[in-house]
Amino acid sequence: MFSTKTIMNCFADYFAKHPTSNISKLISIFSDELVVLENTNKQILLWREIDNAKGNALDLIGENVIQNRGVATDEVYRILLKSKIARNLSDGTINTIIQVISIALSTDPSTIKIVEKWNDVDEPEPAAIKLIELPLTKINEAGLDPLNFIRIIQRTVAAGVKVGVIELSGTFEFGDETNVIDNLKGFGDINIESIGGYLGAVYTPANDKELPI
Q1: Contact indicator for 98, 132 with CB cutoff of 8 Å
Q2: C-alpha count within 13 angstroms, C-beta hemisphere, residue 75
Q3: Helix, strand, or coil (residue 183)
Q4: Distance (Å, rounded) from C-alpha 107 to C-alpha 123?
Q5: What Å distances lie between residue 175 and 182, 187, 188, 195, 196, CA to CA?
Q6: Are both 117 and 70 inside the same structural domain?
Q7: Dihedral over Cα of 24, 25, 31, 32: its sign
Q8: Cβ-based neighbours of 185, under 8 Å, separated by 6 or more
Q9: Does one domain contain both 26 and 65?
């Protein structure tokens, strides 16, 4: 849009428009700066989105929603920002909690399952929930530790409701038939990272570094 040729075409034919003319040389200086300015404006617009923003741009978004960064990396801070925005609209119901988690981790709500513990067969507990079938890979990719993730959920539930153990199921399993291979469930290949399943986990609160949630 701001190329020298485009700008020169806006001038009357009275002016010398060939590339070696003095006015073309002068305009080329301005056009280069205008291109840089245009690219900067495009970057500003792009970084208004939480998923695209980095560094100070994320901090500015955090100021708008009153969410401090603390020691969080950009990846973890994005989760904090998304969860804070979603929590502001939360009514504390299970469906809303699922929505908050799915927004924070950028995953489909169908990948998340929450169970109330009042009717738990093994350890019934009133006013408590536990999470199962949570996307473990999303948490790992962001580098978010279990305690801070539990704290995000605790801020989302209704007052007085306890978040219990978070059970995360992996994809790893042994085959039940001979010579049947599933690259997403079996042992991994050290040379090909996309091959192999991952183990599940049970997360309980620990003495990890706290984030300003």
Answers
A1: no
A2: 8
A3: coil
A4: 29
A5: 8, 11, 14, 15, 13
A6: yes
A7: positive
A8: 171, 172, 173, 175, 197
A9: no
First-to-last C-alpha distance (Å) of the chain? 44
What is d(CA 210, CA 213) in angstroms, rounded to the nearest whole number? 8
CA dist 122 and 126 (Å) reads: 13
Q: How confident is the model over 165-198, as pLDDT tens digits?
A: 777 666 666 666 655 556 556 666 667 666 666 6
Q: Beta 162-168 vs 201-203: how paired, if at all?
A: antiparallel
Query: Highest mean pLDDT range out of 43-52, 140-149, 152-161?
Result: 43-52
Domain count, the chain: 2
8 Å CB contact between 7 and 31: yes
Q: Is residue 98 part of a domain?
A: yes
pLDDT tens-digit readout, 7-57: 777 777 777 777 778 888 888 887 888 888 888 888 888 888 888 899 999
Pairing of strands 128-132, 162-168: parallel
Give the range of the structural domain holding residue 9, as residue numbers without chain letter. 4-46
User: pTM of the predicted model, to two decimals?
Assistant: 0.59
Q: What is the CA radius of gyration of the chain?
A: 26
